[in-house]
What does this fold into?
Amino acid sequence: MRCEELRKYLSPYIDSELDAAVCTAVVDHLAQCQSCNQRFNQEQEIERLLAERLRKEGMPDAFWKAVLAKLDTSKNIRISRYGIKWLVPAVVIPVLAIALSAVFLWVKVPERGLIPVVQDIHGRYLKEEISLGPEVSWPEEFKRVSLPSWLPQSGEVEGHQFRLIGVRPCDINDTKAAYCVYECCRIPVSIFVLRKEDLRSFPQARDMLEKNRGSVMLSRRGMNLGMIDLGEVVICGISSHSIGSFLETFKRV
Amino acid sequence: MASEAYLRRKREFVQLLSEHRDSLYRFCTNVIWDKGGAEDVLQEAILSAYKAFDNFQVGTDFRAWMFRFVINKVFNHNKRYRKELQLQVSSEEPDLLEALEKENAYSSILQDPQALFERIDDRVKTALLSLGPGERMVFLLRSVEGFTYREIASFLDIPMGTVMSHLFRSRAKLRESLSGYARQMGFMR
Ligand SMILES: [Zn+2]
Ligand SMILES: [Zn+2]
It folds into this structure.
């Protein structure tokens, strides 16, 4: 092989992509020819320096954070073969399964019970159709409710950092509620506060709470929903983040 | 529990992504001229990959899997990129490397490439931008990201021969730019 011919193989040589037959010929030539040998090494060095320069730039932290935030609010990973699992005591499953199949659906149900509305609002928050924060304003009707004064602002539950994003009044059908958004592990958590007496308008939810001694946790298709009875108010939370221990913090205060 | 499975998958995705974030970012910003466009493309690619993450097979190359999404979004962003990749390279084209060999400036670079690179700052990026988009993509995938010819051919949906000719031309053109800088700067030994 002659020197000029060899130069054609410079590129695949740099990339270690010469096929075996040519490779032997190239290697043989390089072993004998000082000038080609030197040239190949120099070219390889230039290539290394070029790549090194272009590898310098990395992803800025601000962009990475924006990506993480987008992932939190984007649709879930499609996970196939997903069964429905109820996180309630085994004994009550048959009873609940009937009650819940009617309400815990992703399609809109004509009755517009508490759970579908809560899902709908949370979904709209994720799609950025509803914006919230940093203001905290409670419905007029909540004047006599003590919860606003001790609403957890931020903290840690079992290693999870959470913080309050905002609160604003909302209507669930004709019932006044407070819509609070938290973030835990950067994942939005929607919390609805209702006065206990207003639960009359949501008989299914009320029955569910009564049958489960004031605490209901459901999980389906990557969404977790929980309800907890705090006496003067009932709290209903929904998130793709786990919600059980988070709702407990409202109890403890 | 459903949400735990989901959160575990999400953590896996974020973990894998974080290992390759720099690689993905620099590829996008080196391929697409304006930074805003490059970031949009990357963010779209990441979201698409995230939604499809259930199809990712554990144990296979996550970076290669991600690059397919990125390249697909790059093509959507600018149709010209795909077109230019498929252009047939004429075999009549004068051998750029051969021409370079006769230049003094280039032989000075060959003698001490490090010395030139210490002085040219960010002109490597300028040189890169003087390449056609096809040449640029192939060069970045090979020289900077280290993918094999076969992988590149499959990412870009072009024959291996086309990968090689784009690569050869991009290298020759980059060296030509380096030569130009060396001359401008009076870099002679
Ligand atoms: Zn030789
Ligand atoms: Zn958390």
